[in-house]
Amino acid sequence: MLDQTDVQTAPGSVGLVQTQYFTFPGPLRLASGKELGPITLAYETYGELNSDRSNAILVEHALSGDAHVAGRHHPDDRKPGWWDMMVGPGKALDTTKYFVICANCIGGCMGSTGPSSINPATGRPYAMSFPVITIQDMVEAETYLLDHLGIERVLCVIGGSMGGMRTLQWAVSHPERVRLAIPIATTSRHTAQAIAFDEVGRQAIMADPNWNGGDYYGGPRPERGLAIARMIGHITYLSDEAMHRKFGRNLIRDNGLEFGFEEEFQVQSYLRYQGDSFVQRFDANSYLYITKAMDYFDLTQPSGSLKKELSRVRAKFLVISFTSDWLYPTYQSREIVTALRHNNAYVTFAEITTPHGHDAFLLESRQLTSLISNFLSYAVD
Known about the structure:
By secondary structure, this protein is of the alpha/beta class. It has 11 helices and 12 strands.
């Protein structure tokens, strides 16, 4: 166990941090036409906002992420924040220079308003009465947080996977508020394949008898269904090469094949561990709502042209993809780059060679640090 001094003085660490909460009354008018409010956003900040409020970087988390990007909440935390490798003194998002913000998205279950939150109109959890949300709605909620923090324009919005979608949406919905944008391992719209994987996960949750139409709060939770959904999702985060390197066909035990359906292969054990761990920290209904928001994401709308929809952006872009990412393969990043270039936008593109698949944005620290640090230093006017 680390003591408090160890955590606060560890090289490159932001030290001990605390999640904060901001509630605005709303209502926020959603893309569906429904309204939601009041809305609470859980968020964390790192570093100091400078005198002219020009050094803010907004980090957007992925599906299962949260506001806790870096540092530790307690000295005995087993793990730091989910992107600790990128946020801290001397790191890509250098907190001696930048004021870094990350908020848990609406629809989530890590402190922001979502289906497990209490509906003030009924005094009970929203459950499936929570309105369907979109990536655009998540971004609109964040504008209230920036207003609350007194930040008119951010230096940069950055994120991977669903965080990349939110990054793109920020640049389109609020071009005047974004100077730089770094979408990583993402897409401008969900393909049929991505929607299919999400649908199988949702059906696994809904088929769990404990799901009970989403009304399970206070009773048994649909843990089996959520665990299966997570296992399905996790397969898409890895690559064939990464799974082969990590597990091969290795067995858990040395006594050969058992000719049954219990865990035999190491990859089975790994996926079950990932599923069982996930249910300890995530809400099944949030999984339904957030994956649906990702499925609805389509930057080509309403015109049907990505080039036309991106014509309003003013930010300079760094688009990053990974060679082994088969969830959001490189051709989807190239579509974004091509549309931006057709609009004469400033855009730099990098494809990183890696065996780590989609999860590479959480692992490839050296190459990401170099790309992002240089872009932040030299792309600013």
